[in-house]
């Protein structure tokens, strides 16, 4: 094989965040769902970067009760894709989850540095976090402090981690991939 040379450009990488409307009611409902799921499946998944309890990556297949949150994330991905990448208006870009899971961190839990490539977008939604909860850290450069009701979305190739937490936190996370449809424009 021929030698592969790598070149690079300096470019800021986007991380987007939004606080969902009516998140107080949504989070109460989601917290109940996560508790039910954890009671049903108390064992931690072991093949993961997360050192905390989490559900399986295919929770969205087994539990359609999370679809409202997944739909919100897919809509957000389409909006940020259109605005950030300024794509061709003939493309009707939609997103689908390739994985979805919920997780609960207890004191001392953390997530090792990792990425979600080859997924287009990675998403975390904060269901129940304290104001002193550990941040999510991107590329050891950007620290985003979680808030209840906050959804954070970033390119799947962007490395991130969560330092050891001193408080509990409950999150939902997912990976999104694009589904492209071409729209006929007159």
Outline the structure in words:
The protein has helices spanning 23-40, 59-62, 67-85; strands at 16-19, 50-51, 53-54, 91-105, 110-114, 121-129, 136-138, 142-144, 150-155, 160-162, 169-182. With 186 residues, it is of the alpha+beta class. The longest helix has 19 residues, at 67-85. The protein is globular and about 50 Å long.
Q: For the record, give the distance between the C-alpha atoms at the N and C termini, rounded to a whole number.
A: 47 Å
Question: What fraction of the residues are assigned to beta strands by DSSP?
Answer: 35-45%
Count the DSSP helices.
Answer: 3
Coarse structural class? alpha+beta
> Which whole number gives the mean pLDDT?
89
Low-confidence stretches: none
Helix content: 10-25%
Characterize the main sheet. 6 strands, antiparallel
Shape: globular
Number of strands: 11
**What is the spatial order of strands in the main beta sheet?**
1-9-6-11-4-3
Rounded to the nearest angstrom, the radius of gyration is 17 Å
Can you write the helix and strand succession as a string?
EHEEHHEEEEEEEE
What keyword list fits this structure?
single chain, 186 residues, alpha+beta, 6-stranded antiparallel sheet, 5-stranded antiparallel sheet, 11 strands, 35% strand, globular
Sequence-ordered SSE layout with sheet pairings:
Elements: E1 16-19, H1 23-40, E2 50-51, E3 53-54, H2 59-62, H3 67-85, E4 91-105, E5 110-114, E6 121-129, E7 136-138, E8 142-144, E9 150-155, E10 160-162, E11 169-182
Antiparallel strand pairs: 1-9, 2-5, 3-4, 4-11, 5-10, 6-9, 6-11, 7-8, 7-10
